[in-house]
Amino acid sequence: MTVTLTERTGARVLVDQLIAQGVTHASCVPGESYLSVLDALIDSGVDLVTCRQEGGAAMMAEGWGKLSGRPGICFVTRGPGATNAAAGVHVAMQDSTPMILFVGQIGREMRYREAFQELDYGAVFGTMAKWAFEIDDAARIPELVARAFRVATQGRPGPVVIALPEDMLADVVTVADAPAAAPVEMAPTATDAAKLGELLAGAERPFAIFGGSRWDAASVASFTGLCERYAIPFAASFRRAGQVPSQHPNYAGDLSLGANPALIKAVTDADVILLMGGRMSESPSQGYTLLPIPSGPQTLIHIHPDPEEIGRVYQPTLGIVATPKGMAPVFDGLSPDNPRQGEAVAEARAAYMDWSEVPRENPGKLQMGQVLKWMRDELPDDAILTNGAGNFAIWLNRYYRFRSFNTHLAPTSGSMGYGFPASVAAKRAHPDRTVVCLAGDGDFLMTGQEFATCIHHDIPVIVVLVDNGMYGTIRMHQEREFPNRVSATALTNPDFAALAEAYGGFGMRVETAEDFPAAFEAAQASGKPAILHLILDPEALSPTATITGLRNR
User: Fold this and answer.
1) What are residue 380's phi and psi, to 5 degrees?
2) In sequence order, which residues have a C-beta less than 8 Å from that of residue 55 and are 6 or more positions away?
3) Contacts by 474-483 with C-beta closer than 8 Å and gap 24+?
């Protein structure tokens, strides 16, 4: 291998490393602390999206990381720029998403004086990133950036935060570029593979749970093929439903907030649980009640790419350190000698179809279940849907069916404001595909200023904005714990359709489900970023909960 030494500024070295690592998109809010990097990005081929707030910029990068499996890249300035971006870093950590946040930093000669916007980034991000550090020497940029890409993608993926002293970026050094870093794939031992086959063959009521990251379409097919051959019903973990095909006959739904009681029963009744890729954290485990901690009568098989996650909460009968790609050949090679009958699969599937098919009626003129059913029936298979946090997402979890791999971007961390910047990232990366953000009124206004980003860069996402004039999830908890005592959850909102038009986009008010199809088609035909302003009765807290119902309890 030939190594070419080139004399460059630190800023140029940094951008050349991004190119060497295959980076195609990056988000930023510009700052004087990394002006030289902004200059080096000109004509680099990296598509740089200029954002309006660092939280939105970081969430866009996280969205690119989810879609590509490679680190999403974000640049922000020091101090408040970095702390604003922390929300996106936290999403990347809890969602196991590869991401790198580059932060401009004060000059090296000013450190430890609490200079203008100075922060210790290792201390600030130490508990929410896999690695946070500062590059002091421009000659080490290739080494450390390549390592950052490996840290972000290997084992359990996650975010890396890199501080860039302003004066270091101006240093001129003679260095070679680092090679592209491909994450290591881990496969089980022959003993583990044999034990896996033995446990699955001996199970009477097995159940599989799909989750985590590092999947591709081929490894998903290997997992679902194993479930077919062994007649194992499977569920998606919280907000991982967009990675597995809902039309698969073994698919039994997702372990989301407001999960199907029949699905919960199927998991708790199982004698063998195959947990593939996920951590079974608080939300999918229904508040850590679904599986006994640290262990119970069920046989637990936990497969995860990070050994630190195996036994962290649940002590498995069999723990295997492996990635989805590493497991695929093993899954493909396993087949039972005596295939079991598929009654449990048929029962779990029927329960899912019954749960998700006919929308429940909610109070008010706008029927959210019918809106989601129309989207389910009419959107193309490769449409990408995004959402942030809020009770509005329960309608999506229950009634929409994801049919193609990697078509849902949503935060397992429960971060409000995530869905809209994630939709901007998705549409920028896949301009030929339909991208829809389902948002609540409180959720959207966390990052809604990025609508200006859509207009500036001509990114025609469609926002289906559900407005009930409150922080609905918190109001639900409030009514349950303190009925009739409303505090801090009511909202006064703008006319969101008019807001979209004020930015230069398309806006339309929607008051009934019958009006929704024409409004959606008009938004698509406009070719502009769009907001469909859906007016939901405040009484309708979720598909099953109402304010009156909670108070009456």
Assistant:
1) -65, 160
2) 84, 85, 86, 87, 88, 417, 421, 446, 447
3) 475/541, 475/547, 476/391, 476/541, 476/542, 476/545, 476/550, 479/541, 479/547, 479/550, 479/551, 480/550, 480/553, 483/550, 483/551, 483/553
The residue to which tokens 């922390």 are assigned = 86
Q: Print pLDDT tens along the chain (553 aa).
A: 567 888 999 999 999 999 999 999 999 999 999 999 999 999 999 999 999 999 999 999 999 999 999 999 999 999 999 999 999 999 999 999 999 999 999 888 888 888 778 889 999 999 999 999 999 999 999 999 999 999 999 999 999 999 999 999 999 999 999 999 999 999 999 999 999 999 999 999 999 999 999 999 999 999 999 999 999 999 999 999 999 999 999 999 999 988 999 999 999 999 999 999 999 999 999 999 999 999 989 999 999 999 999 999 999 999 999 999 999 999 999 999 888 878 999 999 999 999 999 889 999 999 999 999 999 999 999 999 999 999 999 999 999 999 999 999 999 998 999 999 999 999 999 999 999 999 999 999 999 999 999 999 999 999 999 999 999 999 999 999 999 999 999 999 999 999 999 999 999 999 999 999 999 999 999 999 999 999 999 999 999 999 999 998 8
Task: Round to the nearest angstrom and report the end-to-end CA distance of the chain.
Answer: 72
437 touches 412 (CB < 8 A): no
φ/ψ of residue 345, rounded to 5: -65, -50
- DSSP-derived letter for residue 116 is T
Quick one: tokens of 83?
């702390």
Q: Which two tokens stand for residue 511?
A: 């008051």
Q: Please, are residues 394 and 256 in contact by the beta-carbon 8 Å criterion?
A: yes
How wide is the angle at C-alpha 141 spanned by C-alphas 140 and 147, nearest 5°?
Answer: 95
Q: What is the rounded CA–CA span in Å between residue 345 and residue 207? A: 9
Q: Which amino acid is at 26?
A: A
d(CA 379, CA 553): 39
Say which amino acid occupies 520: F
Residues 102, 13: Cα–Cα separation, whole Å? 14
Sequence-distant (6+) residues with CB within 8 A of 1 are none
CA distance 50 to 57: 8
Q: Where are the alpha helices (DSSP H) in 95-216?
A: 121-125, 141-153, 166-170, 190-202
- What is the number of residues in the chain? 553
Contact criterion met (CB below 8 Å) for 83 and 464 = no
The owner of tokens 């398309």 is 506
| Domains detected in the chain | 6-175 (3.40.50.970), 190-353 (3.40.50.1220), 358-552 (3.40.50.970)
